Structure prediction request, 1117 residues.
Amino acid sequence: MKQLADAQVEIVELQRNLEGADKRNSLLQDSLQRLDEESTARDALLVAEKQEKEVTKKTLTEALDRIEELVKELECANNSMHQLQDSIQRLEQSASAREAVLLTEHQEKDAKSKALAEAEVRIDGLLEEISSANINIDLLQKTMKRLEKDAMTRESLLLKTKQSYDDTITELFEAQERNQQLTSKIEDSDNKIGLLEVSVKRLEESTSVMDSQLAIERHENSKLRSELSDARLRIDELLNEAQDNHASLAERDDMIKRLEENVSTKETLLLTEREQNASTSKLLAEEQLKIAELIKNIEEAHRKSDSLQTTIERLEEDGTAKDVLLLTEKQAHEATRKTLVEAQERNEELLKKIHDDDKNILQLQFTIQRLEENKATKENLLLREREQNDATTKVQIESQERSEELLKKFVDVDRKIDLLQDSIERLGESSTTKDALLLSERQEKDAMKKELAEAGERNGELLMKIEDTNEKIEHLQNTIIKLEEDIAAKDVSLEAARQENDSIRKSLTEAQERNEELLRKISDNEYRIHLLQDTVQKIQVDAISRLSSFVMEKQDSDVAKRALTEAQERNEDLLKRNEDLLNRNDDLIKKIEESGKVITHLQESLQRIEGKAANLEAENHVLRQQATATPPSTAKSPPSRSKITRIHRSPENGHVLNGELRQAEMRPSAGMSEATPPVGNAPNSSNQKDFEHGEKLQRVLNQKHQPQQPQDDQQWLLTCIPQYLGFSGSKPVATLLIYQCLLHWRSFEAMKTGVFDRILHAINSAIEAEHDVRTLAYWLSNLSALTVLLQRSFKTTRTALSTPQRRRFSSERTFHTSQTSNAGLAYLGGQSVVGATGLPQVEAKYPALLFKQQLVDLIEKVYGMISDSVKKELNPLLELCIQDPRTSHSNLAKSNTNGLGQQNQLAHWLSIVKVIANYLDVLKANHVPSILVHKLFVQIFSLIDVQLFNRLLLRRECCSFSNGEYVKAGLAELKHWSDNATREFAGSAWEALKHIRQAVDFLVISLKPMRTLREIRADVCQALSIQQLERIVGMYLDDVNGSNTISAEFASSLKAAAREEANTVTTFSILLDDDSSIPFSLDDITKTMPTIEMADDDLLPFVRENPGFAFLLQRGE
Prediction:
């Protein structure tokens, strides 16, 4: 492929050289005709110059070296000779007129006395000019020899060109075969496209069948939900009537069995639908693969058609004038075949020389214009002088005839000198050395004109030299005749080559027509493929939405299954609890009977203790009187007495404090012995056993009484959760209520509890009951605040908090018994430790940690529902925003002058801004954390970027200048909205639109032909890949200015970069993917959310309306 490309580049250069050679050939033919005319005139002059031939030979040998240098310079100047031939003819005429003017001027000056002397002086000058003419003749001979050599080389080059023509003909046949292959491939692609259309129709039919099946499933799911709601109601009734209604359990078991049968049937339906979805997804994947293969085939067809077009264009240029190019520029042709680099360097040098020659030509044209003006003035002078010349004498006429003959020779010589000087001037302007040579030659010419006055004495010698020159001219004429015959033969060969070129051109035109037909077919195929891609994308979007709905329904069915299993488990638990309650009732009855016996025993023991206490008091009174120096014994008696009286008083009145029981439970058995005196140890130990027995009895009564009150409170909480409770400042009331209740019930520290599941179920039902954005934003705020409260309240260990309290408790117990009892009650009664955030620190158990994780899952679910809601509203608007609704430039002008029309054109963009602004207002009104709002809008703007950019790449009519201005105006509206929104909420959302912004900037950028690929990628399209930029450039249309889109250098560098990227990257896609992942974590929310301060005023209005939650305020007091 590289060799073909190099050959094609060489062929293009050869075609250009052939065109220049054709022009040069025509100029050479004109010059040969002039030479024929000049040779007839020279025959008469050379007869008189034969005698001077011997003298001129010496001067010719000296001038040979100089002529060789001039010939080399003339070869370089031949490119500009064909443009100056006409001007040279005019100069010759003007020179002859100028010489006549000079003659007439000399005749006027020396009309009578000095005419003969001046004629002799002129003859001397003519002799010198004839010597220079001899030099020029030698130059002509050398040029003739060079022409003969060139003729030989041209013949060899003609053979080579014929071979190259044969090669080009074979390449043409190969190109025709490739065109036939392309046509067959395009026909195959048409057949494949037809098959694709049929498959797309089948997919649409299958999707319609899936829709009907999904509708049936939804109906069945609604039935399931209704049945589940009935089952839940029945389960609630079971919870209330579980103690008394054992007979109804059998009926509910039957209902559960029916529900299980319904669930099994629905599971079979779901399995069948899964299989159908799997088959449709496989079909979609196969169709996508086929479409990708079609796109690759069409791209290859595009590349091949482009290569064919380039080869055809090059062959057309080749068929114009190869022969003449090969004749004139053999060295350049051989150099281009050797290496491309040398050819490019030579071309650059030739371009520079051509620019210099153009400058010289312009100067010569100015000089020619001046000469023509001088000629007109001198013609007027000649008319006047002719009237004066009529009065001259016959003697002057004879001398004038001789001088006129010499002047004619001088004119010829002067014309040749002028030609050489013009060529020398053209070549000499490029260097200072040539300028110096031209100045010296002009000085010599002026000196020769001055020496004409001294040429009278040399007339005889001139006549001899003229005879010699006539012989040379005859020889030259013979050589010119031979050359004309050779040129005629070559013209015949050139005509044959031209006929071959004409035939090649005809075949090329036919190939071009075929290529145009192929291009039309390819464009039609591209349009069909774009349509198919759009339909496939729509089908994919529909399939994804249906799959998502199927997944949601599947999740609902899974939730229903879980609810059924949970209901079954709860029923089993209820049955077990009923049996346990019955057993506990029997045990309690037995324990109450035993406790009656224990109470009577305790009363007896208390009476004994009172008697002993009276005895002890008497003994103590005696001891105080006798031993006044023993204060420790007296110090121990009051605490022990108070202790005994407290224990004696509590069973008698029937009011045992919960804290005291727990305090007694935590004390070791040695604690009682510390508080009592050593006297009477046996009764004290029996009293301790009686007290422990009463303590167990009170604990049993407390276990029976405690679950009733939290159960009622939980029911109140579950009824309040689905209601809209509002906000206290920026704090959600529902979050504070749930958190305070769970703290009060110590649910976070419980190893097993069902309150978390009930709360989650209530929140789920509240979310699913209403799918509007306000409800979702309200619950997103509540769930985020509740999760952050749990995250900041939970701790990992409690040793750091519990150990100092226990140490303080044990140290104070020795000296201050009453203080220790109050401290123990405060600690064990629910006073938790406060952390650094102002929240109580709790050691959470597994159910609480699981509850926190489920809250995080709920946050992600609600966030996804809000995101899906935004996408559903934006997708139809984005479909309308990618293309300008205006259809003509008149509408464009009208809409630009009318501001109301511009608002109408941007109506879809303004509706997008309105949707986004409404969502922001709803989220701010519900105090959703700023990080979630920020992430949501970044994701929304990313969706806008993906949708608009992909549609721009897939639709050719969208890649125009006017459409780019329309999309840019719409993006400006989004930019205005993001600037007005605070950075806390909008943030870096504008950066997510980088792909569509950079693509639109490229569409509307000015001076595209003046920009390079590096500038475009560095300043405009930093985020776009080479493949994406190539796609946009290929589809771009300037429908306003109609100018060229890009420069040739930009196109070549873009293709080279695309090739490099295709070689390095194995798999790539020009389309963007939509990122629907969750872009945040719990740590992000916790770090960014401010501290939530707990105050009683937050729940005070709610508690006033709901007195059942008064325990929260009591706890706070």
Remarks:
- Confidence is low (pLDDT under 50) at residues 629-709, 797-833, 887-901.
